[in-house]
Amino acid sequence: MNIWLNFLIDSLAFGATFIYGSTGEILTEKAGHLNLGIPGIMCMGGAGGCLMLNLIGKSGLPPVLIVVLGILSALVFSMLMGLIYSFLTVTLRANQNVTGLALTTFGVGLMKVIMSKLTATVYLVGPKQYYRWPFAGRQDSLQCLGVLFFLAIIIAIAAGWVLFRTKVGLHLRAVGENPATADAVGINVNRYKYLATCVGSGIAGLGGFYYIIDYMASQEAYLSLEAFGWLSIALVIFALWRPPVTIIGSTVFGFLFSCSSFITIIPGVTVTMAMKPVLKMLPYVVTVLVLIISSIRNKRENQPPSSLGLSYFREDR
Amino acid sequence: MEKQLALQMKGITKRFGGIVANNQVDLDVYRGEILAILGENGCGKTTLMNMISGIYFPDEGKIFVDGQEVVIRSPKDAFAHGIGMIHQHFKLVDLFTAAENIVLGVKEEGRYDLKDVNARVTEIAEKYGFHIDPKKKIYDMSVSEKQTVEIIKVLYRGADILILDEPTAVLTPQEIVRLFDVLRRMKEDGKAIIIITHKLNEVMEVSDRVAILRRGEHIATVETKDTNEAQLTEMMVGKKVDLNIDRYDPENAVPRLIVKDLNLYDQEGIHVLKDISFTANGGEILGIAGIAGSGQRELLESISGLQPLRSGEITFYNPKKNKPVSFYHKTMKRVRELAAQGAFHDGQGKPVSFDGMSNKAVWKWVQSQGVLFNEDEVVNLRDKNPMQIRALGIHLSFVPEDRLGMGLVGSMGIRDNMMLRSYRKGPAGFLDRKKPQATAEKIIQALEVSAPNTNTPVSRLSGGNVQKVLVGREIAYVPKVLMAAYPVRGLDINSSYTIYNLLNAQKERGVAVIFVGEDLDVLLALCDRIMVINSGTVTGIVDARTATKEQLGLLMTKTEPLRKEGA
């Protein structure tokens, strides 16, 4: 297979982790909640899925059922995290940043405990082939384009459609922009906030699961997951709060990440050992640049939701 | 045509704590008519309307829609009965288009299709003669367009009883004419329209009947064609009440603050203050009367340097005449400069010259208080920021309307709030806590503030106590001009009198007091002169000793007759 094509597909596959994370975060932010718990939620999603696979990995269930059960378990774990977050920030009106950071610390720690107790031969070796359908068994990067990869693309496009083309999306955006107005026209603000946060967390959790079981498919994968959670949050700004745009942004980020390992294979390019760490810096440098550039844009549509980070209480005036 | 009753209120009473906002109000509205509700600030107009639109729930009384008794608990219930209210402060999502805002929250069967909504919005707009582009974003819109969106929003939901809370307050005369055309068309369409206003000319122009409220009570409802502005004013302000506030005659009143041709535009480009000119004298209380939102706040903010002015002059006469030079810390260079200009005399009227004297000798002379100023210092306040104004030694003490928003920090205690005014004093880098502590205790004692201690966050104190802390602090820092906006709002009678006495004491000290009030009786009893502003224009400055409430009421509400568009 052509090196460049291989490179591109790998970027896409890697990017799917970010697609999940950013799409989940966008839904939450559109409801006016800045969820910094996303890294922890992604970790919990991964841990939840793997925990289920550890139970049923060698049970001889049909592959389809194993795939579905793993996804469901990842969803349940991450949505529970989302529920904790929404209870604290929506109902109790706790500070969103603090709650999110606490949730990340908690999620990352708990995931490490869970993952260290699981047996890789059970949860990983067998099931990863099912998740990598239809390209399982191939030796190039095409193998990573599995069920969860396509689900990511579908979710990102569907989320965009729901947000900008349906009434539910209109209401959700109104809640994030101006909850008092939404409340005045009879929209149940808290219900939308809960819904968006939990669904968003579920989606983000799938990202963690995808990263461990499909893209990396290794026993140590979970150790590097948290960093990608943070990048997903940064990507939200890059994507201008539009879920379909995350596909492009994620691919760019994936590309930058794969850069350092792929560049050595390209004929005619020599990379010294000293250059490698510099190349590895690339995605982070670009993240900083993206944050700077996106902060100086001033079109109203490209700004964060107006009431992002603010709790809403009807009797506050 | 037989008149059909749309809405009827019987014996509506609403209390907030001990204050009665509405007392036994009866009101009828018919289909195909425009009813104006007229009254002073705080007379309960908006409270009454909020009860119809479901924001408040009445304590007593009944509401009938089309002859049927109804219970309205929420805005949703109000919509279900076809009642829609257009609030003074628009509730719109800035980022959405007009159509998106209009359709927001409407429960309809079928697929969400913005094109369909756009078409229906255009249809409604055409029917009543609105000009609107359904695809335009709210943040691109003028105030009048936003108001149109609000009205269509209500119509889209099928309302046939419309309540407009001071719809003309933010509009230009041409826009008002257009709005009234729309209202008349809606009236012909059989809708019942209630318009809250305090502009008499508009009442005369657009309404069929006028209901007058005063201090929460329904005074009368009259046919517009049978009445006139003078009669309405009289009903609106009532007879004068004697208040027994001490008022001394001003002594040696000298101009302290001269404001000339002040013009201010707000962020939305609205002309908020128009050619305001007045003089505030030291040792005198200048009252400012006007309907809420006529520009009082902006005027005070302009003087204290918080608003960027378009044009105009604000001159401050710093009272220095015959005061020792040492009183004002100046550099030696500045002192010598002033002496060379002949700014000082030695107490016997002889001009002071420092020629040939050493710095040390000059310093000694100045410190001995033997060098006095000849004249007051003239300072131009225009374009100086609040910090510079303070640095110049000009004490503009400002009691903002929004106590906790602008005046005090809610989560800090009384002492720390005192420190907001004094933190620059004291040894460099360290805070002086002792003096603020003493000030705080003095205020607590003198004004009878009930607070557990000086560290209790002020947000936990009652509104009246917060107000006392704020006024007390402003006075404690020895102002030369004291501007107080609604300093007695929300205070009980005793606290109010404490504040009046404080203001009087400042007046005796020679301070120029500017008092923005809403109660005309108080203004008439406390102030020496009263300036009336109306939609950002000074409509008159009257002597409070001879003026009448009717006179003030007319000045507050009278505007130029509406001109037709293009005329």
Largest sheet of chain B, if any?
6 strands, mixed
The termini of chain A sit apart by 63 Å
Percent in strands of chain B: 15-25%
CATH class of chain A: Mainly Alpha
Total E-strand runs of chain B: 22
* Unreliable spans of chain B: 562-567
The CATH H-level homologous superfamily of the largest domain in chain B: P-loop containing nucleotide triphosphate hydrolases
Q: What pair of chains forms the biggest interface?
A: A-B, 19 and 18 residues
Q: What is the straight-line distance between the termini of chain B?
A: 34 Å
| Oligomeric state of the chains in view | heterodimer
Q: Per CATH, which architecture of the largest domain in chain B?
A: 3-Layer(aba) Sandwich
Let me know the average pLDDT of chain A.
89
Provide the CATH topology of chain A. Answer: ABC transporter involved in vitamin B12 uptake, BtuC
**How are strands sequenced across the largest beta sheet of chain B?**
6-7-8-3-9-10
Approximate shape of chain A? globular
Alpha plus pi helix count of chain A:
13
Please report the number of helical segments of chain B: 19
Radius of gyration of chain B: 28 Å
β content of chain A, as a range?
under 5%
Helix content of chain A: over 70%
